[in-house]
Design a protein that fits this description.
Blueprint: E1 4-8, H1 12-24, E2 28-32, H2 35-44, E3 50-53, H3 62-70, E4 80-84, H4 89-98, E5 102-105, H5 110-120
Parallel strand pairs: 1-2, 1-3, 3-4, 4-5
Helix pairs in contact: 2-3
Length: 123
């Protein structure tokens, strides 16, 4: 198994699609329904090498999720990719200022998503 990716999105369709794309590229994938579930999975599923997260989610949005991940020393350098329908400049700036490494607007081309993930993982 390759590197481990955590996919956080409230849309089951998007979670399944991103997981399918990443698994086909040899990555191990864990999925979560929102930021709260994402934090639980991050803490419980062992080493995660990269996170792909949505922004608009119930219980805990992606911005708050990123803030919580970045507050912890163990995850300070963990690559985070935002994958969101929110493509306004203020959303992109906020996501990046909170600690996202990359901001992609849905729908993202699978090849571009994989290329960016591999780049962030140093592959």
């Amino acid at each position: 198994m390759g590197k481990h990716i955590l996919v956080v999105d409230d849309s089951k369709t998007v979670r399944n699609l991103v997981a399918f794309i990443m698994k086909n590229e040899g990555f191990k994938v864990t999925t979560a329904e929102d930021g709260l579930d994402g934090l639980e999975k991050l803490y419980s599923c062992g080493a995660v090498d990269l996170i792909i997260t949505d922004i608009n989610m119930p219980h805990m949005d992606g911005f708050t999720f990123i803030e919580n991940v970045r507050k912890q020393d163990a995850y300070r350098d963990l690559p985070i990719v935002v994958l969101s329908t929110e493509g306004q400049e203020q959303d992109i700036k906020l996501g990046m200022s909170l600690g996202a490494n990359l901001y992609m607007v849905k729908p993202a081309q699978p090849e571009k998503m994989v290329r960016n993930v591999r780049m962030l993982l140093g592959q």
